[in-house]
Amino acid sequence: MNVTRLPDVDPRPRRVAVGMFDGVHLGHRAVIAGSDTVLTFDPHPLSVIAPGTQPPLLTTLDRKIELLEELGVQETVIVPFDRGWAQHTAETFVDEVLVGLLHATRVSVGENFRFGHRATGDTALLAADGRFELRVAPMIEVDGEIVSSSHIRGLVLGGAVEYADRLLGRPFRYCGTVGHGEKRGRDLGFPTANLVPREGYVVPGHGVYAAIAHLDDGSAVPAAVNVGVRPTFETGLGELIEVFLIDWSGDLYGRELRVDFLKRLRGERRFASVDALVEQMHEDVVAALATVSGRT
CA-based angle 192:198:199, to the nearest 5? Predict the structure, then answer.
């Protein structure tokens, strides 16, 4: 897939889907269907318009591009959103970007799409423009709940990854580079690959999860994952994602790890003794294996 930043696009007719598309969930897929090009924004516009109010993101830009490519999108065009872009009127966006640069023959958006300075642009403004066809995708519902990035964020932050995965259309994935911890897990017989949460991105709520860890060599390994601050021990570390790869051994330091969260097994809690913790960890591994087996 071709990835281009505005205004460095080649002149050609395009069927363009427009949106932030954080998470590339089921609702986003409905908007994108039939489009050869996706126009998206980086960073999140709220981080420029009202710094500090932007939501934590479900996907990095690289992950979003990867997911769009999986949907068959031929080109992703990125608007490098800054204060200058924030001042563009809705009419200017249509004239200069959709028509002038992208040569859009069809524009696809969600029914709640707003754009332009002070969000004055909407689907009615787009529908009134006769230079392209407009496709408005309705909101998608699952079990009576609207599928939206904000709803999915809340589910993941609350630990409800199993339900969030249904709205995403795939498991919630967290990616990171393995760093060094206190090596306490190794002493307990459960060596973990440690990921430090990145600021500005969604992390599942504290607890223990069944997951699948994808290594940079292409292999996929069942995993039990603890997200939290390890309350049984006094540590100097903050929040950490600790990934125990089941029946796997090797050196992961400095390597990329992608973790697909499948189900929350239990909440994080303090144990009266190390022996009680180890006993529970064995139970967590059994439960994680059963969950992964049921999903593969």
Answer: 145
